[in-house]
Amino acid sequence: MKKGKLEVTRGSGNVFRDLGRPNADVEQFKAILAAEIIKALDRQELSVRGAHDRTGIAAADFSRIRNADLGRFTVDRLVSILNRLGSQVEIKIKVHAGTGAHRAIA
Question: Of 58, 69, 72, 82, whose CB neighbour count within 10 A is largest?
Fold first, then answer.
């Protein structure tokens, strides 16, 4: 890079894909759902214990979500948590043809 020139690389819109993570789309989806859970908690002014009292879901799970520790959560579990917080989830899916970089599963 020459002095004074800034090189810009555009991201894909999915930071997990940009970092080369396996299952990047699932990780992105889980992060979006977790962000919505956090918004619901904040809107309702619920602590993790208050969220537990309202939903029956462990306070530790809400702490994990707030800390973006999403490894133990499935997409359907995160959707279920949102539902228990009173939110309805609508999912729209777009599938784009791959670039050929991924192997087909036989």
Answer: 82
